[in-house]
Amino acid sequence: MIYAENVLICIAVPLAITLLFTRGGARRLSASFIAGMIVCILSAYISGFMQLMSGFSAEDTSIFLSPMIEECMKLLSMLFCVYVFNPSDDDIQLCAVGIGAGFATFENCCFILSSGAPQLAYVLVRGSAVGVMHIVTLVALAKGMQLLKTYKAFSLAGIAGVLSLSVTVHGLYNLLVSKPGVSSYIGYVMPMICAIVLYRINSEWDDLTMIKNSNNYHTHIGESNE
Amino acid sequence: MNGETLFGIVATILQSIVLIVVVLQSIRLTLMKKNYFLPFFFALAMMSFLLSDLYWIAYDVLKPDTRMPIAANEIGECAMILLLSAGLDVVLKDKKKIPAEIVFTFLFIGANIVLWIAWSGEWLQDVLFGIPYIYFLWLLIRGIRSRGVLIRKELWLASLMGVSVLILQIPLFFVKGFLFEFIKVLCFVVMFALMAWLGFKSFQSKDYFMTLAFFLWTELSMFLCPEPYYDMAFWVNIIVLPMMYTSMKKELANDLC
Predict the structure, then answer these.
(1) Can you say how many angstroms the Cα of residue B3 is from the centroid of all Cα atoms in its chain?
(2) Residue A217: is its pLDDT beyond 60?
(3) Is there a contact between A20 and A82 (Cβ–Cβ < 8 Å)?
(4) Inter-chain CB pairs, A–B, below 8 Å
(5) Helix (H, G, I), strand (E, B), or coil: what is residue A153?
(6) Which three-class secondary structure string do you get for B15-69?
C-alpha cells in the first residue's frame, strides 16, 4: 500500500512553485501537468469506489471500468479549460499534452512505488506504453475539439463521440495487456503506433488549418468587395 | 471456443477488413484538402467501428465463451453513431424542429431499448448506449424529409413497417409453439422486407442520409435478431459500409459544386 496523496504533494509542490516564476506557455504547461496528476488521483478514487459498488474483480475493473472513468475525468478537465479560459487551438493542445503527461507520470510513479522497478526493460515498456497512451488519447480528444471549434460544430454529439473513441482505444489497450503473450505485445506497441499516426495528423493539421483560414479570408474579402 | 464463436470471429474479421479499406479511403479524401470536415468525421466514425470490432475479436480470443460484464465494444459503436451525427449535423441544411418527428424518434428508439433490456437484462448500458440512436434517427428523418429522398407516403410506410417489427417482437416473449413460429417468421419477413427496400432506395438515390438510414436499420435489426437472422443482418451490415463511403463521397462532391 502506498499513500498516493503524499506522493502527489511531493511531486506537485515544486511544480506549483514554478508557476510563480514562469509565464505564458510554460506556466500553462506546468499548471496542466499538476491538473493531470490531480485528475489521476481522483480517477483512482472513483475507480476504487466503483469497484466496491459493482463487485467487479480488480482485473475486470481495470479492463471495463477504468478506461471509462479515466477518459471521462480527462475530458472534464479539458472541457473546464475550454469553457473557462476559451483557449486558442494551440493552447488546447498544450493543455491536453500537459494533462496527459501529468496523468501518466503520476500513475507510473504510484505503480513503481507499489510494485518496485527491478527490471529496466519492464519499466521502459510501461513508460512507453501506458505513458504514451494517456497522452495519445488526450491529444486525440484535443484534435477533435479543435476541429469541432473550427467548424462551429462544438456539439454534445461531437464531444461525446470523440470521448467514446478515446475510451475504446484505452479499453482495447487495457484488454490486450491484461493477458501475457502475443496480445500484450500488440497492446504495448499500440500506443506508440497511435502516437506516430497522431504526429502525422498533427503535421498535416497545420496545412489544413491554414487552408481553412485562407478560405475564410478569401470569403471575407469577397464579401467586402461585394 | 465453440463453432458459433469462431463463425462470429471470422465474420467480424471480414467486416474489419472492409472497414480498414473504408477508413483508408476516407483519410485519402481528407488529405485532398478541400472540405475535410465530413470525410474526417466519417473516417473517425469508421475507425470507432473498427476499434469496436477489434475489441470484440480480442475479447473472444482472450476470454472465449464468457459474457462481458459491460459490453465495452458498444462504446465504440456509440462513438461511431455520435461522430456520424456530428458530421450530419453540419451537412443538414434543414433547421426545422417538428415535434412529431422528435416524439416519434423518442418512442421508436425507446421501444427498441425496452426490447433490448427485455432480451438481455442489461438496463443501464442499454439505456446509456441507446440514447445516441435517438439523435441519429432524428437527424436522418429530417435529412430524408427535407431532401425529398422519400416522399411523405414512403416515409409513413417505412415508419409503419419499423413499428410493426417492434410490435411483432412483443408476443415472442409470451407465446409458444406454432403461434410463436408464425409470429417470428412474420416479424422477420417484415424486418428484411424493410431492409431490402431501404437498400434499394439507398442504391438508387446514393443519398448520404438514406444510406445511413439503411445502415441504422441493419444495426437495429441485428440487435433484435436471434441466430440465424442475426448473421443475415450482419452480412447486409458489411455490404452497407462501402455504400456509406460512396454516398459520403457524393455528398462531398455536391457540397463542393
Answers:
(1) 26
(2) no
(3) no
(4) 102
(5) coil
(6) HHHHHHHHHHHHHHHHCCCCCCHHHHHHHHHHHHHHHHHHHHHHHHHHCCCCCCC
Reading the block at residue B194, the C-alpha cell is 424493410
Average pLDDT of A203-219?
Answer: 57
Asked whether the CA dihedral B73, B77, B83, B89 is positive or negative, the reply is negative
Domain boundaries of chain A, sorted by first residue: 4-210
pLDDT in tens, B180-238: 888 888 999 999 999 999 999 999 888 999 999 999 999 999 888 887 888 889 999 99
Reference B63, options A163, A139, A60; nearest CA is A60
Per the document, the length of chain A is 226
Provide the grid cell at A58.
480488480
Burial of residue B102 (number of CB atoms within 10 Å: 0-12, 13-18, 19+): middle
The conformation of residue B150, written as its DSSP 8-state character, comes to S
The predicted-structure confidence for B53-63, as pLDDT tens digits, reads as follows 898 888 888 88
Give A-chain residues touching B55 at CB under 8 angstroms: 168, 171-172, 175
The three cell numbers of residue A126 are 510501461
Task: Find all residues with CB under 8 Å of B86, minimum gap 6, and list them.
Answer: A148, A153, A155, A157, A158, A161, B41
Report which secondary-structure segment, H or E, holds B71.
none
Burial of A112 (0-12, 13-18, 19+ CB in 10 A): middle
Distance from CA of B90 to the nearest CA of A (A): 7
Under an 8 A CB cutoff, do A208 and B36 touch? yes
Domain count along chain B? 1
- Single-letter amino acid, residue A168: T
Distance CA B136, CA B226 (A): 25
Rounded Cα distance between A160 and B86, Å, is: 10
CA distance A110 to chain B (A): 26
Tell me the longest C-alpha to C-alpha distance in chain A.
72
Is the ipTM above a cut-off of 0.95?
no
